[in-house]
Write a structure and sequence with these properties.
- It contains 13 helices and twelve strands.
- The protein is an alpha/beta fold.
- The strands form three sheets. Strands 3, 4, 5, 6, 7, 8, 9 and 11 form an eight-stranded mixed beta sheet that branches. A two-stranded antiparallel ribbon has the order 1-2.
- Helix 9 links the parallel strand 7 and strand 8.
- Helix 2 runs antiparallel to helix 3 and helix 9 crosses helix 10.
- The chain starts with a strand and ends with a helix.
Length: 337
C-alpha cells in the first residue's frame, strides 16, 4: 500500500509523487485532499520550496510536525519536482543542483531465520551483481551471529554486509551484537534500539567501531538536529517518500556540514519512492549507498510503463524528465479500485 499524489497544472502538465504509506494510505490521502489541496490551488508550481515550507508551517502550531502529515507533504513535493522536470524536460536531479555521479550504488535487502537458507539467498543476490547486502534479522544475538557468519562465509570478504535489527535491542545487547558483527567485518548495525532513544543510540555509536545506521522515522532537519548534536549515529537513513526532495536536500546539507554520510531508506516505498530516491542520490555529495529490494521491484513497477531498473548493483543515472518514470494511469485505477 502507498499513497500516490497526482498534480495537474491549468495547461495540462502532470506530475506524480508518493507519500510513503505502507499502512493506512487513506490517512495520507485525506491530508493531501483536505489540507494540502487548498494551499496548492492557484499557486505557481515553480515555488516548490516555498510550497513545502508553507504547507509545513500551516500545521506546526497545531503540533503536526511529523508522521502522516509530513508524509503527505513529501508526496506533494515529489509530484511538484516530477511536474517541473517534465515541464522543463530535465531530470529532477538537475533541479536539485546537478549530478554528482553517473551510477547510484545500492544494497539488496534479504531476510530469513535459517542460516543455510539466508546464506543461499545472499549468494544468489551476489550472482545477480549485488556487492552489498543487508540482512533483516530480529532473532537472538547468538542466532543473528550464526546467520551473519554463514552469510559471510558464503559470499566472501569482498561483499559489503549490514544488519538491521529494527529497534529490537537494549543498549547493552546492541553493543554486544555489534562487537560480534565487527569480527565478521560487517559495515553497519541498523536501528539497534528504540526509535525514541537518542541517548541510547549515541552510546551504542560511541562504543562500536562499525557504523550505526538509523533514522528512517526522522522526517525533517529539525528532527535530525538533536541526533546530530548527540552524534547518535554514523550514517543517516532518511526516507525520501517521507521527507520529500526539498527537505531531503536540506537534511543532506545539514549532514554534510558534520561530515556525515547519507544512505536513503526506501523500505516499503513504491516505485515512485524508488525513482525519487535515485534522483536524490544522484544530486547529493555525501551519498554512501541506497536501499533496494530486488524481489519486490517488479511488483512495485506494475503501476508504471517505464521506471528505473538496476544493473550490476547500481541504478544508472539517466536524463529522463522529472522522476524519470511513466505512470500507467489505467493500472493505478485498477489497483485503487
Amino acid at each position: 500500500e502507498t499513497c500516490l499524489v497526482r498534480l495537474e497544472t491549468d495547461d495540462g502538465q502532470v506530475g506524480w509523487g508518493e507519500g510513503q504509506a505502507p499502512v493506512s494510505p487513506r490517512t495520507t490521502a485525506s491530508i493531501v485532499e483536505d489540507l494540502c489541496r487548498p494551499v496548492l490551488l492557484d499557486r505557481d508550481p515553480f515555488d516548490v520550496e516555498y510550497l513545502w515550507y508553507r504547507l509545513y508551517s500551516a500545521m506546526r502550531e497545531r503540533g503536526h510536525i511529523t508522521g502522516f502529515y509530513v508524509d503527505a507533504l513529501a508526496g506533494v513535493d515529489l509530484a511538484l519536482y516530477d511536474l517541473l522536470g517534465k515541464a522543463l524536460d530535465v531530470p529532477a536531479h538537475k533541479l536539485l543542483g546537478g549530478r554528482f555521479r553517473d551510477k547510484v550504488p545500492i544494497y539488496a535487502g534479504i531476510g530469513g531465520t535459517d542460516p543455510e537458507k539466508v546464506a543461499q539467498s545472499a549468494s544468489e543476490h551476489v550472482d545477480l551483481g549485488y556487492r552489498a547486502l543487508k540482512l533483516h534479522l530480529r532473532d537472538s544475538n547468538r542466532r543473528i551471529l550464526e546467520i551473519a557468519s554463514a552469510v559471510r562465509q558464503a559470499v566472501g570478504d569482498e561483499v559489503e554486509l549490514m544488519v538491521d535489527v529494527h529497534g529490537t535491542r537494549d543498549v547493552s545487547s546492541a553493543i554486544q551484537l555489534g562487537r560480534g558483527l565487527e569480527k565478521l567485518d560487517f559495515r553497519w548495525l541498523e536501528a539497534p534500539t528504540l526509535a525514541e532513544d537518542v541517548h541510547g543510540q549515541a552510546e551504542i555509536a560511541s562504543a562500536l567501531d562499525m557504523q550505526v545506521a538509523t533514522g528512517e522515522w526522522l522526517r525533517t532537519a529539525w528532527e535530525w538536529r538533536q541526533w546530530i548534536e548527540f552524534r547518535a549515529f554514523d550514517v543517516a537513513m532518511p526516507d525520501i517518500a517521507r521527507t520529500g526532495l526539498t527537505e531531503g536536500k536540506r537534511i543532506a546539507g545539514l549532514l554534510d556540514s558534520f561530515n556525515l554520510p547519507f544512505a536513503p531508506h526506501v523500505g516499503g516505498g513504491g516505485i515512485l519512492s524508488v525513482a525519487a530516491s535515485v534522483q536524490f542520490s544522484a544530486a547529493i555529495p555525501n551519498l554512501q549507498i541506497l536501499e533496494h529490494s530486488h524481489g519486490a521491484h517488479a511488483g512495485k513497477g506494475r503501476i508504471a510503463s517505464s521506471y528505473p531498473e538496476p544493473t550490476d548493483g547500481c541504478f544508472p543515472v539517466t536524463d529522463g524528465p522529472g522522476l524519470d518514470i511513466e505512470i500507467d494511469e489505467g493500472a493505478v485505477a485498477e489497483f485503487s479500485a
